[in-house]
Amino acid sequence: MALPKHIETRLFINGEFSESSNGKTFDICNPATTKLVAKVYEASEEDTNRAVAAAKDAFPSWSNLSVEKRASYFKKLANLIRESNDEFAALEAASMGKPMGTFHDAMMCASKFDYFAEAGYLVQGTTSVQTPGFLNMTLRQPYGVVAAIIPWNVPLLFLASKLAPALIVGNTTVLKSSEKAPLTSAKLATLVQKAGFPPGVINIITGFGNVSGSILSHHMDVRALSFTGSGRTGRLIQAAAAQSNLKAVMLELGGKSPAVIFEDADLEDAVKQTAFSIQMNSGQVCMANSRIYVQDTIYDKYLEAFKERFSAVTMGDPLDKSVNHGPQADAIQHKTVIKYLESGKQSGGKLVLGGSAPSDREGYYIQPTVFSNTPEDATIMKEEIFGPVVNINVFKTEEEVLAKANDTEFGLYAAVFTKNIDRALRFAKGLEAGNVGVNCTSPTTGRDMPFGGYKSSGIAREGEPTYSLNNFLETKSVLIKIS
Ligand code: NAD
């Protein structure tokens, strides 16, 4: 599949496209070929402030519209997104290496706008007559300007998960895309314009953490900020909020997710699911099961089957629809994964599959890699690698493995495979994670279930029917004295 002839690379502020105020651009290179794809405008401090000012100006009239009117723009946008599916897929493939044959992001994005178009009436306040002489009530009201900062691994889904709920309840928005994958957000901005959203309601800027991300996090007119990305950046954003206006901050951060396989599990299914979890998107998934614990009685059988399944990927150009294993997103990600592979080789664990970049291929590829019996305190057991790299360790008892699974600062997703209902429920309760899969693992999620992390994997929950909507609303108590 070829790239579109025209690639949008400008900033979308107040309903119009513009170059950056200082003319600065950054390069997007194809991670499969390392060749230049586009020069993208980088938002300056002035541009970022202009985007926030546009959102602030647009807020009074947008928040006064009916839900139906706001929803009418969502429906137009969702249809335009679906029509552009192949273009979105090609842009993502060429900028961050996601194989086109595995691309569902645009459909998921459109579906979020469709869902929230219907969900505006779901959030309501409460009333109380429990205080004599009073009728009291709460009002749920939008914050005003909401900022969204997204990562590069599933950009369109995160864009919609933040913008759609924030907008439908009356906020206006500024989204900063990731410097590694800005092209689909910029393309979506062209569709926002086509759908006829009033100027300033959705502003989409491209740039780095420094300048534009940091300006948004410190901005006094941004009242809420929803972030998905690394823990390191999440902490900087939380600190910026504390140093500025104490804006509400939602953080969806990284993981080091365990999957526990007991001897009574359906082995074939467990292998299939756990291998897909760490292979999908070349391991660049926050909830990927990067630590697998297998009971000693089935360990050898599981390991052999896992290696066979995990190595059978079709590696190649992500623009080719038959490929299911693309490169890492860019040179930085590739270098980071290689560094972890070297650390793993020194850790005392055993390398049993892969372990390097393929020698016969240009671009930022990594072989599917398995380490076995890595010491629990090794760096590759503790830190998020964000690559197709998994540790498969052995355990004997339930108590031992629950302690090991929970011995992490992360808590995004955990999985247990067993046919024993009591044990399954003990693990559902005992695993320290915001999401627990029983006989399933990530990326399995429930559309009407909250998504988010325990511990350092995040703050707040996103999801339907109302979790995300509640993130973007203030609560006001109104006390009415009845004479
Ligand atoms: P990142 O933290 O490097 O960047 C994320 C975004 O933050 C980018 O847009 C970046 O420009 C911006 N940013 C960087 N520094 C900033 C600063 N000082 N202030 C404000 N913004 C700043 O993360 P990434 O590499 O893009 O994404 C990978 C990470 O995201 C992984 O840790 C992954 O686990 C996590 N992630 C989490 C979820 C989830 O739902 N929990 C989903 C996907 C990815």
From TrEMBL:
<dbReference type="InterPro" id="IPR029510">
    <property type="entry name" value="Ald_DH_CS_GLU"/>
</dbReference>
<dbReference type="InterPro" id="IPR016163">
    <property type="entry name" value="Ald_DH_C"/>
</dbReference>
<dbReference type="Pfam" id="PF00171">
    <property type="entry name" value="Aldedh"/>
</dbReference>
<feature type="active site">
    <location>
        <position position="252"/>
    </location>
</feature>
<keyword id="KW-0560">Oxidoreductase</keyword>
<comment type="similarity">
    <text>Belongs to the aldehyde dehydrogenase family.</text>
</comment>
<dbReference type="InterPro" id="IPR015590">
    <property type="entry name" value="Aldehyde_DH_dom"/>
</dbReference>
<feature type="domain" description="Aldehyde dehydrogenase">
    <location>
        <begin position="20"/>
        <end position="478"/>
    </location>
</feature>
<protein>
    <recommendedName>
        <fullName>aldehyde dehydrogenase (NAD(+))</fullName>
        <ecNumber>1.2.1.3</ecNumber>
    </recommendedName>
</protein>
<dbReference type="GO" id="GO:0004029">
    <property type="term" value="F:aldehyde dehydrogenase (NAD+) activity"/>
</dbReference>
<dbReference type="InterPro" id="IPR016161">
    <property type="entry name" value="Ald_DH/histidinol_DH"/>
</dbReference>
<dbReference type="InterPro" id="IPR016162">
    <property type="entry name" value="Ald_DH_N"/>
</dbReference>
